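Cross-posting from the chemistry board since nobody answered there.

I work mostly on the small-molecule side, so proteins are not my area. We synthesized zinc ion and want a rough idea of how it might sit in this target. Sequence and SMILES are below. Is it possible to get a predicted 3D structure of the two together?
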Amino acid sequence: MMGPAHSLSGAMAWLGVGLAAAWADNPMPWPVLLTGALICAGAALAPDLDQKNATISRAFGPFSRWLGAFIDKLSVTVYNATRGRQDRRRTGGHRTLTHTWIWAVLIGVGFSAAAIYWGRWAVLIILFIHMVLAVEGLLWRMARPSSDVLVWLLGAASAWILADILDKPGNGATWLFDDQPYLWIGLPIILGSIVHTLGDSLTISGCPMFWPLSIKGRRWYPAGTPSFMRFRAGSKVENAVLMPVFMAVSGICGAGALYLAA
Ligand SMILES: [Zn+2]
């Protein structure tokens, strides 16, 4: 899938979790519902930072070129070191390491740990990264003609404002984990990353989310829906069917979560 569909599906997934949490008597205060949906929208784009030339890999200016090159190197190395008998040797890392569930969990746990150990500044940085990605994902081509600096300013401002709101008592810094503020922040990151792999598994190339489980002699088996159901990334199905459905479901889940929490 392309950026907007990934990001929308991320937001939808978090709003769905919000609805489920409200049902399970652990309702999210609205700032957690909103911030989580934005973080998840951003995190649902992040796995594609493994492509040096993708739009998204330019989101953080010169830094992202370095980051993209690094992730690409790391991914190829891990791929070739762990490939099964039937996996071809590869020279590019796209759709490998960052498209696995293990990566999703590691990255989410890593960000949660950073928030616990380093406190406010880590939270601000995590929010900033994901707000920039969310803007890139949700606004996509509309964000492109504007300058990078504008998107960064928007990301920084919203990170600052959201952190201030969350910090107020009862607004959700300690949602779900009473004495560990912002421990929950890794959850939308894990979820977004997993939702991305599910989105890619609907497209023709599939996604090796189950690494390192061996499937048919391949540890990087491109799992996905039955082939007749798959579509090309960026195709009509995505824009005309999936995105409107994602928006509708997001609206219903968000409204339901707020209603049950009230
Ligand atoms: Zn992808």
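Reply from a structural biologist on the board:
Welcome over. Reading the output above for you: The pocket of zinc ion is lined by residues 47-48, 95, 99, 196, 200 (CB under 6 Å). The helical segments are 3-23, 30-43, 61-82, 101-118, 120-139, 148-167, 186-200, 236-261. Happy to explain the token format if needed.
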